[in-house]
Amino acid sequence: MKSFLKVKSVGNGMAQLLDNFCEKNHLNSPNDHTYTLDERICFEHWLKKLKFIDQQYKKEGLGLEIAKSLEAKHMGICNYLARSCHNLLEYLDISLDYDKLWYDYMDKQIIHQTNEIIMSWNKPSYYNLGLYRRETEISEELEVALYFIKTKQMTDTDIPIYNHLELAIPAPKNTKLYEDFFQCPIIFNVDKTTLFIKKSILEIPLANSDQTLLELLKRQADMQLSTLPNNTSFIELVNKNIIKSIENRDPRIEVVANYLNMSPRTFQSSLKAEGLKFQNLLSNVRLQLAQQYLHNPELSIATISDLLGYKEQTSFNRIFKSWTGESPLRWRETYTKK
What we know:
This protein has 338 residues and is of the alpha+beta class. The chain has 18 helices and eight strands. A hairpin with a 3-residue loop joins strand 4 (109-112) and strand 5 (116-122). It is globular, with a radius of gyration of 22 Å. The model has no long low-confidence stretch (mean pLDDT 91). Pfam families: Arabinose_bd, HTH_18.
Protein backbone atom coordinates (compact mmCIF):
# COMPACT_ATOMS: atom_id res chain seq x y z
CA MET A 1 0.00 0.00 0.00
CA LYS A 2 2.71 2.43 1.03
CA SER A 3 4.69 1.78 -2.15
CA PHE A 4 1.67 2.64 -4.31
CA LEU A 5 0.88 5.83 -2.38
CA LYS A 6 4.49 7.01 -2.43
CA VAL A 7 5.42 5.94 -5.97
CA LYS A 8 2.28 6.99 -7.85
CA SER A 9 2.05 10.74 -8.42
CA VAL A 10 0.43 13.67 -10.20
CA GLY A 11 2.09 16.41 -12.24
CA ASN A 12 2.88 19.87 -10.93
CA GLY A 13 -0.03 21.28 -12.96
CA MET A 14 -2.45 19.62 -10.54
CA ALA A 15 -0.99 21.74 -7.73
CA GLN A 16 -1.63 24.83 -9.85
CA LEU A 17 -5.19 23.62 -10.41
CA LEU A 18 -5.75 23.46 -6.65
CA ASP A 19 -4.25 26.94 -6.24
CA ASN A 20 -6.66 28.34 -8.85
CA PHE A 21 -9.67 26.67 -7.23
CA CYS A 22 -8.75 27.88 -3.74
CA GLU A 23 -8.19 31.43 -4.95
CA LYS A 24 -11.58 31.54 -6.69
CA ASN A 25 -13.34 30.16 -3.59
CA HIS A 26 -11.39 32.17 -1.00
CA LEU A 27 -9.91 29.05 0.59
CA ASN A 28 -6.44 28.42 1.97
CA SER A 29 -4.32 26.50 -0.54
CA PRO A 30 -2.74 23.21 0.58
CA ASN A 31 0.44 24.05 -1.35
CA ASP A 32 3.30 25.37 0.76
CA HIS A 33 5.54 26.28 -2.18
CA THR A 34 5.49 26.82 -5.94
CA TYR A 35 6.15 23.56 -7.76
CA THR A 36 8.81 23.52 -10.48
CA LEU A 37 8.16 22.16 -13.97
CA ASP A 38 9.91 18.85 -13.23
CA GLU A 39 8.46 18.42 -9.75
CA ARG A 40 5.82 15.79 -9.03
CA ILE A 41 3.48 15.23 -6.08
CA CYS A 42 3.41 11.71 -4.65
CA PHE A 43 -0.12 10.37 -4.46
CA GLU A 44 -0.23 10.25 -0.67
CA HIS A 45 0.57 13.98 -0.52
CA TRP A 46 -1.98 14.63 -3.27
CA LEU A 47 -4.70 12.95 -1.21
CA LYS A 48 -3.72 15.00 1.83
CA LYS A 49 -4.02 18.18 -0.22
CA LEU A 50 -7.54 17.19 -1.26
CA LYS A 51 -8.41 16.48 2.38
CA PHE A 52 -7.11 19.92 3.38
CA ILE A 53 -9.46 21.58 0.87
CA ASP A 54 -12.37 19.29 1.72
CA GLN A 55 -12.17 20.29 5.38
CA GLN A 56 -12.69 23.90 4.33
CA TYR A 57 -15.18 23.43 1.46
CA LYS A 58 -17.53 21.01 3.26
CA LYS A 59 -19.88 20.47 0.29
CA GLU A 60 -20.64 17.58 -2.04
CA GLY A 61 -19.12 17.56 -5.48
CA LEU A 62 -15.72 18.99 -4.56
CA GLY A 63 -14.00 17.09 -7.37
CA LEU A 64 -16.48 18.50 -9.89
CA GLU A 65 -15.92 22.05 -8.69
CA ILE A 66 -12.13 21.75 -8.79
CA ALA A 67 -12.33 20.43 -12.36
CA LYS A 68 -14.17 23.60 -13.46
CA SER A 69 -10.93 25.52 -12.88
CA LEU A 70 -9.04 23.39 -15.43
CA GLU A 71 -6.76 25.25 -17.85
CA ALA A 72 -4.63 23.82 -20.64
CA LYS A 73 -1.39 24.34 -18.68
CA HIS A 74 -2.58 22.12 -15.83
CA MET A 75 -2.20 18.97 -17.97
CA GLY A 76 1.20 20.01 -19.26
CA ILE A 77 2.55 18.33 -22.38
CA CYS A 78 -0.45 15.96 -22.53
CA ASN A 79 -2.71 18.87 -23.46
CA TYR A 80 -0.51 19.77 -26.42
CA LEU A 81 -0.14 16.14 -27.46
CA ALA A 82 -3.92 15.77 -27.60
CA ARG A 83 -4.42 19.04 -29.49
CA SER A 84 -1.85 18.00 -32.10
CA CYS A 85 -3.81 14.84 -32.99
CA HIS A 86 -6.42 14.68 -35.76
CA ASN A 87 -9.04 14.01 -33.10
CA LEU A 88 -9.28 12.72 -29.54
CA LEU A 89 -9.86 9.19 -30.79
CA GLU A 90 -6.31 9.24 -32.19
CA TYR A 91 -5.00 10.54 -28.85
CA LEU A 92 -6.90 7.86 -26.94
CA ASP A 93 -4.66 5.18 -28.40
CA ILE A 94 -1.55 6.79 -26.86
CA SER A 95 -3.17 8.29 -23.76
CA LEU A 96 -2.84 5.18 -21.59
CA ASP A 97 0.84 5.97 -21.13
CA TYR A 98 1.02 9.73 -21.60
CA ASP A 99 -1.84 10.63 -19.26
CA LYS A 100 0.33 9.29 -16.42
CA LEU A 101 2.35 12.47 -16.79
CA TRP A 102 -0.47 14.51 -15.29
CA TYR A 103 -2.37 11.85 -13.29
CA ASP A 104 -0.49 8.63 -12.59
CA TYR A 105 -3.12 6.59 -10.77
CA MET A 106 -4.67 3.22 -11.61
CA ASP A 107 -3.94 1.65 -15.00
CA LYS A 108 -6.72 2.18 -17.52
CA GLN A 109 -8.41 -0.38 -19.75
CA ILE A 110 -9.97 0.75 -23.05
CA ILE A 111 -12.50 -1.16 -25.16
CA HIS A 112 -13.51 0.06 -28.63
CA GLN A 113 -17.12 -0.57 -29.61
CA THR A 114 -19.18 0.53 -32.60
CA ASN A 115 -20.71 3.65 -31.08
CA GLU A 116 -18.80 4.18 -27.86
CA ILE A 117 -15.42 3.86 -26.20
CA ILE A 118 -15.34 2.26 -22.75
CA MET A 119 -12.58 3.36 -20.39
CA SER A 120 -12.32 1.82 -16.92
CA TRP A 121 -10.05 1.39 -13.93
CA ASN A 122 -10.21 -0.51 -10.65
CA LYS A 123 -10.15 0.70 -7.07
CA PRO A 124 -6.66 0.78 -5.50
CA SER A 125 -5.94 -1.88 -2.91
CA TYR A 126 -5.26 0.70 -0.19
CA TYR A 127 -8.86 1.94 -0.56
CA ASN A 128 -10.16 -1.58 0.11
CA LEU A 129 -8.14 -1.52 3.33
CA GLY A 130 -10.00 1.59 4.48
CA LEU A 131 -7.14 4.04 3.90
CA TYR A 132 -7.77 7.58 2.57
CA ARG A 133 -11.32 6.68 1.56
CA ARG A 134 -12.88 10.15 1.46
CA GLU A 135 -9.82 11.66 -0.20
CA THR A 136 -9.72 8.90 -2.82
CA GLU A 137 -13.41 9.40 -3.60
CA ILE A 138 -12.72 13.09 -4.25
CA SER A 139 -9.72 12.19 -6.41
CA GLU A 140 -11.81 9.65 -8.31
CA GLU A 141 -14.61 12.08 -9.19
CA LEU A 142 -12.02 14.77 -9.97
CA GLU A 143 -10.20 12.59 -12.50
CA VAL A 144 -13.46 11.72 -14.29
CA ALA A 145 -14.49 15.38 -14.25
CA LEU A 146 -11.12 16.45 -15.68
CA TYR A 147 -11.54 14.02 -18.60
CA PHE A 148 -15.01 15.50 -19.11
CA ILE A 149 -13.90 19.15 -19.01
CA LYS A 150 -10.83 18.48 -21.17
CA THR A 151 -12.93 16.79 -23.86
CA LYS A 152 -15.44 19.65 -23.90
CA GLN A 153 -12.70 22.27 -24.13
CA MET A 154 -10.89 20.53 -26.98
CA THR A 155 -13.94 19.63 -29.06
CA ASP A 156 -15.77 22.88 -28.31
CA THR A 157 -19.11 21.10 -28.07
CA ASP A 158 -22.15 21.28 -25.81
CA ILE A 159 -23.23 17.77 -26.77
CA PRO A 160 -23.18 15.28 -23.85
CA ILE A 161 -19.89 13.37 -23.92
CA TYR A 162 -20.80 10.28 -21.91
CA ASN A 163 -23.64 7.88 -22.65
CA HIS A 164 -23.52 7.03 -18.96
CA LEU A 165 -21.06 6.63 -16.09
CA GLU A 166 -20.33 4.09 -13.40
CA LEU A 167 -18.45 5.62 -10.48
CA ALA A 168 -16.68 3.57 -7.81
CA ILE A 169 -17.65 6.00 -5.06
CA PRO A 170 -20.58 5.96 -2.62
CA ALA A 171 -23.78 7.55 -3.92
CA PRO A 172 -23.92 11.21 -2.83
CA LYS A 173 -26.99 12.67 -1.17
CA ASN A 174 -27.55 14.85 -4.23
CA THR A 175 -27.09 12.53 -7.21
CA LYS A 176 -28.71 15.14 -9.48
CA LEU A 177 -25.71 17.40 -8.90
CA TYR A 178 -23.51 14.80 -10.57
CA GLU A 179 -25.96 13.90 -13.33
CA ASP A 180 -26.40 17.57 -14.23
CA PHE A 181 -22.64 18.10 -14.32
CA PHE A 182 -21.87 15.07 -16.51
CA GLN A 183 -25.13 15.34 -18.49
CA CYS A 184 -25.82 11.62 -18.27
CA PRO A 185 -27.20 8.86 -16.00
CA ILE A 186 -24.78 7.63 -13.32
CA ILE A 187 -24.53 4.40 -11.33
CA PHE A 188 -22.64 4.78 -8.06
CA ASN A 189 -20.99 2.36 -5.64
CA VAL A 190 -19.68 -0.09 -8.25
CA ASP A 191 -16.46 -2.11 -8.20
CA LYS A 192 -14.66 -0.02 -10.80
CA THR A 193 -15.07 3.36 -12.45
CA THR A 194 -16.18 3.13 -16.08
CA LEU A 195 -16.67 5.90 -18.65
CA PHE A 196 -18.95 5.13 -21.59
CA ILE A 197 -17.78 7.79 -24.05
CA LYS A 198 -19.64 8.68 -27.24
CA LYS A 199 -17.38 7.76 -30.13
CA SER A 200 -18.83 10.54 -32.29
CA ILE A 201 -17.48 13.13 -29.84
CA LEU A 202 -13.97 11.72 -30.02
CA GLU A 203 -14.12 11.78 -33.83
CA ILE A 204 -14.66 15.57 -33.99
CA PRO A 205 -11.67 17.09 -35.89
CA LEU A 206 -9.39 19.26 -33.73
CA ALA A 207 -8.60 22.74 -34.97
CA ASN A 208 -4.85 22.71 -34.22
CA SER A 209 -3.93 19.26 -35.49
CA ASP A 210 -0.25 19.09 -36.41
CA GLN A 211 1.33 15.67 -37.03
CA THR A 212 4.89 17.03 -37.17
CA LEU A 213 4.48 18.72 -33.82
CA LEU A 214 2.84 15.56 -32.47
CA GLU A 215 5.95 13.48 -33.23
CA LEU A 216 8.21 16.04 -31.58
CA LEU A 217 6.00 16.16 -28.49
CA LYS A 218 5.94 12.36 -28.29
CA ARG A 219 9.74 12.29 -28.03
CA GLN A 220 9.68 14.82 -25.22
CA ALA A 221 6.85 12.99 -23.46
CA ASP A 222 8.71 9.68 -23.79
CA MET A 223 11.69 11.22 -22.02
CA GLN A 224 9.42 12.38 -19.18
CA LEU A 225 7.76 8.95 -18.97
CA SER A 226 11.13 7.26 -18.62
CA THR A 227 11.57 8.98 -15.25
CA LEU A 228 8.38 7.46 -13.78
CA PRO A 229 8.49 4.14 -11.87
CA ASN A 230 7.19 1.25 -13.94
CA ASN A 231 6.68 -1.50 -11.35
CA THR A 232 3.64 -0.19 -9.49
CA SER A 233 1.09 -2.15 -11.52
CA PHE A 234 2.73 -5.44 -10.50
CA ILE A 235 2.93 -4.40 -6.84
CA GLU A 236 -0.70 -3.32 -6.88
CA LEU A 237 -1.74 -6.65 -8.41
CA VAL A 238 0.22 -8.56 -5.77
CA ASN A 239 -1.32 -6.51 -2.95
CA LYS A 240 -4.84 -7.17 -4.23
CA ASN A 241 -4.22 -10.90 -4.32
CA ILE A 242 -2.65 -10.88 -0.88
CA ILE A 243 -5.86 -9.28 0.39
CA LYS A 244 -7.82 -11.99 -1.42
CA SER A 245 -5.73 -14.72 0.23
CA ILE A 246 -6.28 -13.17 3.66
CA GLU A 247 -10.03 -13.00 3.06
CA ASN A 248 -9.88 -16.72 2.23
CA ARG A 249 -7.89 -17.35 5.45
CA ASP A 250 -4.92 -18.78 3.54
CA PRO A 251 -2.25 -16.08 3.04
CA ARG A 252 0.59 -18.25 1.73
CA ILE A 253 2.96 -17.45 -1.09
CA GLU A 254 1.84 -20.58 -2.97
CA VAL A 255 -1.78 -19.39 -2.84
CA VAL A 256 -1.01 -15.84 -4.06
CA ALA A 257 1.23 -17.23 -6.81
CA ASN A 258 -1.65 -19.45 -7.94
CA TYR A 259 -4.00 -16.44 -8.07
CA LEU A 260 -1.45 -14.77 -10.36
CA ASN A 261 -1.11 -17.89 -12.53
CA MET A 262 2.55 -18.23 -11.56
CA SER A 263 4.59 -20.95 -9.97
CA PRO A 264 5.88 -20.02 -6.49
CA ARG A 265 9.44 -19.96 -7.86
CA THR A 266 8.54 -17.60 -10.74
CA PHE A 267 6.57 -15.41 -8.35
CA GLN A 268 9.50 -15.17 -5.94
CA SER A 269 11.84 -14.32 -8.82
CA SER A 270 9.48 -11.57 -10.00
CA LEU A 271 9.35 -10.10 -6.51
CA LYS A 272 13.13 -10.29 -6.15
CA ALA A 273 13.57 -8.47 -9.46
CA GLU A 274 11.57 -5.59 -7.96
CA GLY A 275 13.51 -5.67 -4.70
CA LEU A 276 10.52 -7.06 -2.81
CA LYS A 277 9.88 -9.91 -0.40
CA PHE A 278 6.53 -11.65 -0.07
CA GLN A 279 6.63 -11.68 3.72
CA ASN A 280 7.20 -7.93 3.87
CA LEU A 281 4.25 -7.26 1.54
CA LEU A 282 2.04 -9.63 3.54
CA SER A 283 3.02 -8.00 6.83
CA ASN A 284 2.30 -4.54 5.42
CA VAL A 285 -1.19 -5.56 4.29
CA ARG A 286 -1.91 -7.33 7.58
CA LEU A 287 -0.81 -4.28 9.58
CA GLN A 288 -3.05 -1.94 7.60
CA LEU A 289 -5.99 -4.33 7.95
CA ALA A 290 -5.33 -4.91 11.65
CA GLN A 291 -5.36 -1.19 12.41
CA GLN A 292 -8.55 -0.74 10.40
CA TYR A 293 -10.26 -3.59 12.27
CA LEU A 294 -9.06 -2.34 15.66
CA HIS A 295 -10.86 0.94 14.99
CA ASN A 296 -14.10 -1.05 15.13
CA PRO A 297 -14.92 -1.75 18.82
CA GLU A 298 -17.41 -4.45 17.82
CA LEU A 299 -14.62 -6.72 16.59
CA SER A 300 -12.87 -8.74 19.29
CA ILE A 301 -9.11 -9.33 19.12
CA ALA A 302 -9.81 -13.03 18.51
CA THR A 303 -12.08 -12.16 15.57
CA ILE A 304 -9.48 -9.81 14.10
CA SER A 305 -6.83 -12.49 14.44
CA ASP A 306 -9.05 -14.88 12.49
CA LEU A 307 -9.88 -12.26 9.83
CA LEU A 308 -6.16 -11.78 9.24
CA GLY A 309 -5.60 -15.50 8.69
CA TYR A 310 -3.81 -16.33 11.93
CA LYS A 311 -4.48 -19.76 13.41
CA GLU A 312 -3.64 -18.60 16.94
CA GLN A 313 -4.46 -15.27 18.57
CA THR A 314 -1.16 -15.42 20.44
CA SER A 315 0.67 -15.32 17.09
CA PHE A 316 -1.25 -12.23 16.07
CA ASN A 317 -0.58 -10.53 19.43
CA ARG A 318 3.15 -11.22 19.18
CA ILE A 319 3.52 -10.09 15.56
CA PHE A 320 1.37 -6.97 16.02
CA LYS A 321 3.57 -5.91 18.94
CA SER A 322 6.66 -6.40 16.78
CA TRP A 323 5.11 -4.03 14.22
CA THR A 324 3.90 -1.28 16.56
CA GLY A 325 5.56 -1.81 19.91
CA GLU A 326 2.14 -2.32 21.51
CA SER A 327 -0.29 -5.21 21.90
CA PRO A 328 -3.49 -5.02 19.80
CA LEU A 329 -5.53 -4.27 22.92
CA ARG A 330 -3.18 -1.52 24.05
CA TRP A 331 -3.09 -0.02 20.55
CA ARG A 332 -6.91 0.01 20.48
CA GLU A 333 -7.08 1.69 23.90
CA THR A 334 -4.58 4.33 22.82
CA TYR A 335 -6.52 5.03 19.63
CA THR A 336 -9.85 5.23 21.51
CA LYS A 337 -8.42 7.79 23.91
CA LYS A 338 -7.50 9.96 20.93
